[in-house]
Amino acid sequence: MEFAEFSRICENIEGISGRLEMIETIAAVLPRLSDDELPVFVRFVMGRVFPDWSPLKLGIGPNLLYEAVGYVAGKKRDGVIAAVNETGDVGLAVERLLATKSQTSFFTEPLTLTGVHADCTRIAMTDGSRSQREKLRIVEGLLGNAGSLEGRYLSRLLLEELRIGVGEGNARDAVARAFDVDVALVAHAHQALNDLGEVAMLARQGEEALREVRIEPFRPVKMMLAQQGTIGEMVADHGAVAVEYKYDGTRFQFHKVGSECRMYSRKLEDVTVAVPDVIEVLDRAIPHDVIVDGEVIAVKDGRPRPFQFVLQRFRRKHEVEEAIGRVDLVPHVFDILYLDGETLIDLPFSERRRTLEDTLPVYVAPQWVSDDLSRLEQIYADALDAGHEGVMLKTLDAPYTPGVRGKNWIKIKPAVDTLDLVVIGAEWGEGRRARLFGSFLLACQQEGELLPVGKVATGLSDDQLAAIYDVLKDLVIAGKGKEVVIEPAVVFEVGYAEIQKSPNYASGYALRFPRFVRVREDKGVDEVETMDGMLARYERQLKSV
Ligand code: AMP
Hints:
21 helices; binds adenosine monophosphate; six-stranded antiparallel sheet; 23% strand; 41% helix; alpha+beta
């Protein structure tokens, strides 16, 4: 498939508002794609380039893209930025700029879907001191061969934000529809393989192939996530439940086969080199091939330390040895997904737990099972006394559902109401903060779209503002007056007093007294609060007055 055709399909989808029509449109395309094209198309149409489990990252920021566009369109950087500001969208700006270019040059080499993917792979593999130049050259090559409509989608794809409204749910349903297979099988295979592109290939083979899917070591699986809830509701709904401490550390997934071990963070980044001490103790403790799930905490003098200590270690690429020993990192393992060739995610939790205890004699997070409210409350109080964040309640019969924030894991922690929201804009500060951003526009998510819910400007120290500026300055997409638009990448945890209805923001809601708590470096944009979650909080608030 030529990239021009892909672009026309994207343009068509962008104009569709109904979910079913969107699914039909995608489903109609999939069967006629070759085996090389199918996985690429499925990822591209969701605005992704590589499988979610893959360590390959494009790493193209708006600045590099603007430079390449400027070169190809014969414009200065300022001209490119002006076009982005005017259109309010990188894709539309590139489309407009390339339209002028196409009158003076002709393309010798039409872009194809697989060709663009191959170039993206080359970009992700460039490494070392000359990598920026090398990336720029490849992006210039791609844009140089692109017509104007292709430019719109190519540029958005390179920033991994296609903005045509196709999320995982729609793409998954389209795969099931295209190959006439059960959507539940597609969803399950997707959870295990963590790449809808590959799942589409299996769907083409049929349901049997989807059923045979196994998880594989060194291919990280999305983490199962928790919802908020109460002890009372959980016991009323399920009777006896498992209760564990909620550790305030950093999530990990540990993979081991033979003597090879790897560790992945919550965002599925490979952090093996950063935490050799944790890997060594787990390697020694587990004489099997495994994938286990847990939380690492920092401990000093027997008490847990704030989670920032662990995060600093997880992010470290250099001088790892020096960092070891300043605090002890202790893993607490609470689940097992794979053992000696067997995929365990479909077993009930109680069985996985038994297997975990048989496999790992140490580092298993303590667990109790009870339906007695006062006993569960007591364990919660003990957890807080011991310096943990709270407790996790887990149903005993549920499978491990990767990437799902369901009702089978419930987190209980003291009522400080906080939300995880993504920064989509900022405003320059004033006075001594004039060279930094002083306030930040935040958004929640709804089916792949980001909806603004308010601004936060309090709770930040000068040091924090400087550190945040350092990260955000490379993510600025456009600017107007005192305001800038920021590429969504950084997640803030913010406290608030109340959620109110508000005509000022596209979400229809706003936060009262928002206050910055911390940057959630462990969370991705797709993990921020959903609009449904906001509405549920709003409803709960109404009930509690
Ligand atoms: P939150 O980050 O507030 O959504 O809470 C869920 C997180 O709590 C998980 O992603 C884990 O990182 C962490 N956690 C701590 N202890 C446990 C536990 N015993 N079971 C599951 N998750 C835990």
